[in-house]
Structures are given as structure tokens and as C-alpha cells.
């Protein structure tokens, strides 16, 4: 029986590690070591996908024992890029995340056209989301949605345009979690990506279930950890 000691939670675009706080607390209470790295593509000095992949690599190198990695939305890209090379990843979880292949970028996966709710900065380097309440937090309480929207930060456009060089899901076991009320990544797009996973789960949730359903997300992660341990 394998011993899985760690869970690494990877946030998506515009967000910060704090979005995982409720899930992280629940997993810590289960005796797991939890790492929540901060991606470099978010913020005023935003970097690209390669910088994010290095952050995930460092978090995995620091995590004790074998790890389950949970990626949300854009976070699926740096996880996909680097997880297979880490050497200690037991399972990947794509939580309504981009599960793409080598040569694909987030921008190419959505047809090469920026959706109307992306607001690009005047210098073209970063962007912010419009209508965050409806797109990201449609199943959250007004209080939770307002706090989450206020915490959003600019996202590097380069991180969306840079293509993947590797696909960890080709080598590692993976689970895709389809969120059925997601207004950011349509369900049909999630289902298409989920065909690449070995296991598919579903949540009756919007794009941010770590905020709207932290108990359910933590329980799902614990179940995957137990299954991966054998």
C-alpha cells in the first residue's frame, strides 16, 4: 500500500492561494501535508507559463512523500507541464481545469479568440475578468462572491498564449472533475478534455467549488488520495 502524505492545490488565473483556504483547512485536519503555491502569472509583475511551472515544480520538490496534485482552471497548464518530471506525483486531479496536450495553449484551446469577458490592459500585457460574480461565483453566496471578486488580480496574457511542452496526464493517473454549473468553461468543453482522464467525477457546482462546496471538494480529494494509496 502506497503512503500519500501530501496534497498540492494549484489555483487558477486571476486568483491567489487564499481561494483554497477552506479546502486546505479540511485536508490539514485529515492529517495531510498541504501545499498551495502562488503562481507567478498573477499580479503586477506577472510572468508566463514557464514561471508557473517552476513554482509548481518547487512545491512538489518540497512536499513530503508522494503527492496528489489538484489543479483548478488555468492551473491545469503548469501542472500538466511539470508534474510527470517531479517524481513524487501519485495522481492528478483536474478540477474544471484545462487538460491540454503538447503544443496547445489555453488561448488555442478556446479557438484563439479572447472571450468578451476578458478585459485586456492598455499595454496588452495583462487582463482582468468582467462579470466575475456570474462567471466564477454563480453558486456562491453574495458575501463570498463579493469578497472573492475583490481579491482578483491581473493575469499575464502570455501565460494564456504559451504552449505546453509536455503532458503529465499521458504518464500519470488522473481524474477530471466536471463542474456542471460552470459559466467559465462550458460543460461540453470539460467533457471533451475529460476523455483524456482515467477517471471522471461530477459536481453540481459552478467554476469555484472550493468556495461554494468546500466540504464536497475536500471529501472528493480525500477519496482520491485513499484510492491512489491503494
Verbal overview:
It contains ten helices and nine strands. It is an alpha/beta fold. Helix 1 links the parallel strand 1 and strand 2. Helix 1 (21-28) packs across helix 10 and helix 2 crosses helix 3 (76-86). The radius of gyration is 16 Å and the shape is globular.
Overall mean confidence score, pLDDT: 96
Q: Kindly provide the radius of gyration, computed on alpha-carbon positions and rounded to a whole number of angstroms.
A: 16 Å
Sheet of most strands:
6 strands, parallel
Major beta sheet, strand line-up:
2-1-3-4-8-9
Tell me the overall shape: globular
Proportion of strand residues: 15-25%
- End-to-end distance: 6 Å
Work out the helix count: 10
Share of helix, binned = 25-40%
Low-confidence stretches: none
Structural class: alpha/beta
- Reading the helices and strands in chain order gives EHEHEHEHEEHHEHEHEHH
Number of strands: 9
Amino acid at each position: 500500500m502506497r503512503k500519500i502524505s501530501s496534497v498540492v492545490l494549484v489555483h487558477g488565473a486571476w486568483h491567489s492561494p487564499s481561494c483554497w483556504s477552506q479546502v486546505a483547512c479540511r485536508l490539514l485536519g485529515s492529517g495531510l501535508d498541504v501545499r498551495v503555491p502562488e503562481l507567478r502569472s498573477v499580479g503586477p509583475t506577472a510572468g508566463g507559463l514557464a514561471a508557473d511551472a517552476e513554482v509548481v515544480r518547487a512545491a512538489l520538490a518540497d512536499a513530503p512523500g508522494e503527492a496528489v496534485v489538484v489543479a483548478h482552471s488555468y492551473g491545469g497548464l503548469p501542472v500538466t507541464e511539470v508534474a510527470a518530471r517531479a517524481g513524487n506525483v501519485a495522481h492528478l486531479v483536474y478540477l474544471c481545469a484545462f487538460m491540454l496536450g503538447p503544443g496547445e495553449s489555453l488561448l488555442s484551446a478556446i479557438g484563439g479568440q479572447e472571450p468578451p469577458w476578458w478585459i485586456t490592459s492598455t499595454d496588452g500585457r495583462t487582463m482582468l475578468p468582467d462579470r466575475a460574480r456570474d462567471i466564477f461565483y454563480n453558486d456562491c453566496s453574495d458575501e463570498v462572491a463579493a469578497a472573492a471578486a475583490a481579491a482578483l488580480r491581473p493575469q499575464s496574457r502570455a501565460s494564456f498564449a504559451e504552449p505546453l511542452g509536455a503532458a503529465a496526464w499521458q504518464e500519470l493517473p488522473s481524474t477530471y472533475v466536471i463542474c456542471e454549473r460552470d459559466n467559465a468553461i462550458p460543460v461540453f468543453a470539460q467533457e471533451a478534455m475529460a476523455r483524456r482522464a482515467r477517471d471522471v467525477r461530477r459536481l453540481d457546482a459552478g467554476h469555484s467549488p472550493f468556495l461554494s462546496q468546500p466540504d464536497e471538494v475536500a471529501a472528493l480529494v480525500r477519496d482520491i488520495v485513499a484510492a491512489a494509496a491503494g
